[in-house]
Amino acid sequence: MQAHEIAVHPPTVRIDDPVSKAVQLMVVNRLPGLVVVDDDDRPVAVLPGTQVLRLTIPESYQDDPALVRTVDEIHADLFWHGPGKLTVGDCLPTPVAKPATVAPDATLLEVATVMANKRSPLIAVVDRSGRLTGAVTLERLLTSLAVAGPSD
User: Fold this and answer.
1) C-beta atoms surrounding 6 within 10 Å
2) Cα end-to-end distance, the chain, whole Å
3) Which CATH number fits the domain that encloses residue 97?
4) Owning domain of residue 66
5) Engineering a disulfide at 134: which of 6, 34, 120, 125 sits with its beta carbon 3.0 to 4.6 angstroms away?
6) Into how many domains does the chain fold?
7) Position 82 confidence tier, pLDDT thresholds 50, 70, 90
8) Strand 33-37 relative to strand 43-48: parallel, antiparallel, unpaired?
9) In this structure, how many other beta carbons lie within 10 angstroms of the beta carbon of residue 38?
10) Average pLDDT along the chain
């Protein structure tokens, strides 16, 4: 199997899009992250959902996890309202790491290697000109590996 055979056609975001849009797209499409593209639909980054989540947690709690235990349940559930006016660009590290990409004809082993090395739950599939043609999610990769594996 090749990357293009298991790739999904995910929605994308741009650096100046609000985080709230990214979160909605991840939830509605059940994605572990999103591909951030430029105006030419070339990937500039992969935004994992965990990075968005990290930015919503107040810094004081990130620095001292024991402090989290002091917050009651009602108030603990409200931390998510923090992103406010954050943009996708605010969620990306500086400098922005090169996105994890593979060619459409990449094998499942190639996709798995890139995904593991980059620790990314989403790998962009790009054509020869560098334009996004799809993405392989961790779930799709594992499902394909399980189905393609030897039978018991």
Assistant:
1) 21
2) 20
3) 3.10.580.10
4) 3-148
5) 125
6) 1
7) low
8) antiparallel
9) 14
10) 85
